[in-house]
């Protein structure tokens, strides 16, 4: 009787809300439904009623079990069958929400155009897999099989992979078997020298602790962990750029030419991707991408000889606006007197969100960090040497949309509001060209953010 009572009470809270959703009824009273259920069951017991119309295999097994053994045993069998049905149905839905390459998705670091062109090509060696839902023994099988398929000989030769970014931002739980599977996946990847990078993971959360308990984060496993997806992308891009600049330095040595001041942001974690086998498909692909990029832009290898004799900020103007304007150094030379040189120590705040713009900045050296406060959360981007800062609010005369501070000691050239006013009055042609370039710079940034 206890089992029958338990089944009758459990039946209503499960089925009544589902029936309300199917019929579009929002005003549900479970207490009233329980009382009505008891009354109708009593009347049905005295007078008889129509049985369940759908004869599924689960119902057949439960009825046979109840008839052969016991009512209580039948209930337990039904619970077991329900669990099995849940596992089967959940396993059919893949835990992989999306898969794409680093060619499509890039970090929000504001980089020079030549770096961006190289990274779009090198990004093919970065594979991003976004996971979601609850990871358990039923759903992890598909993830593991996908990983194994990527590093099989034939697939790996067609598409060599250097980094795999697993994004856990939509994962809300993981069981022990799924956590153990990631250690197996990492061992498989390491045999191919593929680095597993995990993003969107709070190591102090339930998912992070589960992965830590199986030893995935041990130093010998080489797994890189980042709290957000953008930081993981930045880490991969910085390692690609090390190959790019080592190749560029080799060309400079052949030409006996000094280097320009383009910089690569430093990673929080050091990783060297140079392989012992120089002729590997991945290394050849990066070398080819670097050679192609440098060939398209000869000034990246050998800056024009005239640049060496120029005083700042003219070389900075030419470098920052390269590819965005057809004007030469004679044109931009007239704008140099309107820029003021400023130095900022690390940690200095240049401006805050909501401030009235008082300058447009060109970063000569160092690195800036722009932080945005949005309803969806905080968002940041890094600005490296040779890139502009604050152009859109300044030229559109709107308030600042971000807080910018110096990540390192910086040297920047600033066009103040008063100087901009003088420039528009005395050099209207240069002012119009600056507005055009600023719009192109904003387009570049939007492409980077939305990628």
TrEMBL record:
The chain crosses the membrane at residues 55-88. Residues 344-441 form the Cyclic nucleotide-binding domain. Residues 127-236 form the STAS domain. It is a multi-pass membrane protein. Coiled coil: none annotated. The keyword Signal applies. GO terms for biological process: basic amino acid transmembrane import into vacuole. SMART domains: cNMP (SM00100). Keywords: Amino-acid transport, Membrane, Signal, Transmembrane, Transmembrane helix, Transport, Vacuole. It comes from the Eukaryota. Pfam families: cNMP_binding (PF00027), STAS (PF01740). Gene3D superfamilies: Jelly Rolls, STAS domain. Residues 1-18 form the signal peptide. It is found in: Vacuole membrane. Its main location: membrane. GO terms for cellular component: fungal-type vacuole membrane. PROSITE patterns: CNMP_BINDING_3, STAS. InterPro entries: cNMP-bd_dom, cNMP-bd_dom_sf, Membrane-Transporter-like, RmlC-like_jellyroll, STAS_dom, STAS_dom_sf. This is Unnamed protein product.
């Amino acid at each position: 009787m206890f089992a029958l009572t338990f089944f009758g009470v459990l039946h209503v809270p499960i089925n009544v809300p589902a029936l309300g959703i199917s019929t579009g009824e929002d005003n549900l009273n479970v207490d009233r439904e329980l009382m009505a259920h008891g009354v109708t069951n009593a009347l049905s017991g005295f007078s008889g009623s129509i049985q369940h119309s759908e004869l599924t295999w689960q119902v057949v097994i439960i009825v046979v079990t109840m008839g052969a053994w016991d009512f209580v045993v039948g209930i337990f069998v039904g619970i077991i069958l329900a669990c099995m049905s849940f596992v089967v149905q959940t396993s059919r839905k893949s835990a992989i929400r999306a898969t794409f390459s680093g060619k499509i998705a890039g970090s929000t670091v504001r980089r020079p155009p030549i770096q961006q062109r190289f990274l779009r090509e090198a990004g093919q060696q970065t594979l991003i897999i976004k996971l979601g839902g609850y990871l358990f023994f039923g759903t992890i099988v598909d993830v593991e099989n996908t990983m194994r398929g990527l590093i099989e000989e034939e697939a790996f030769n067609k598409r060599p992979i250097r980094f795999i970014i697993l994004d856990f931002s939509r994962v809300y739980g993981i069981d022990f078997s799924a956590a153990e599977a990631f250690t197996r996946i990492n061992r498989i990847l390491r045999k191919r020298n593929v680095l597993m990078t995990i993003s969107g993971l709070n190591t102090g959360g339930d998912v992070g602790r589960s992965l830590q308990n199986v030893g995935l984060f041990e130093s010998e496993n080489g797994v890189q962990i980042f709290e957000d997806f953008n930081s993981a992308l930045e880490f991969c891009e910085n390692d690609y750029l090390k190959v790019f600049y080592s190749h560029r330095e080799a060309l400079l040595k052949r030409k006996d030419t000094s280097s320009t001041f383009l910089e690569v942001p430093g990673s929080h974690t050091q990783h060297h991707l140079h392989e012992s086998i120089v002729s590997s498909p991945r290394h050849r692909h990066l070398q080819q991408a670097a050679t192609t990029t440098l060939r398209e832009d000869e000034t990246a290898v050998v800056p024009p000889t005239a640049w060496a004799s120029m005083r700042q900020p003219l070389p900075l103007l030419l470098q920052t606006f390269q590819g965005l304007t057809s004007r030469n150094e004679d044109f931009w030379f007239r704008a140099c007197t309107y820029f003021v040189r400023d130095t900022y120590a690390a940690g200095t705040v240049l401006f805050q969100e909501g401030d009235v713009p008082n300058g447009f900045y060109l970063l000569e050296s160092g690195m800036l960090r722009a932080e945005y406060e949005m309803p969806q959360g905080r968002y940041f981007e890094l600005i490296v040497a040779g890139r502009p800062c604050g152009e859109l609010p300044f030229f559109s005369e709107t308030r600042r949309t971000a807080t910018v501070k110096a990540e390192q000691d910086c040297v920047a050239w600033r066009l103040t509001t008063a100087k901009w006013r003088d420039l528009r009055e005395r050099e209207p042609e240069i002012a119009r060209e600056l507005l055009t370039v600023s719009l192109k710079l904003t387009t570049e940034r939007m492409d980077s953010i939305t990628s």
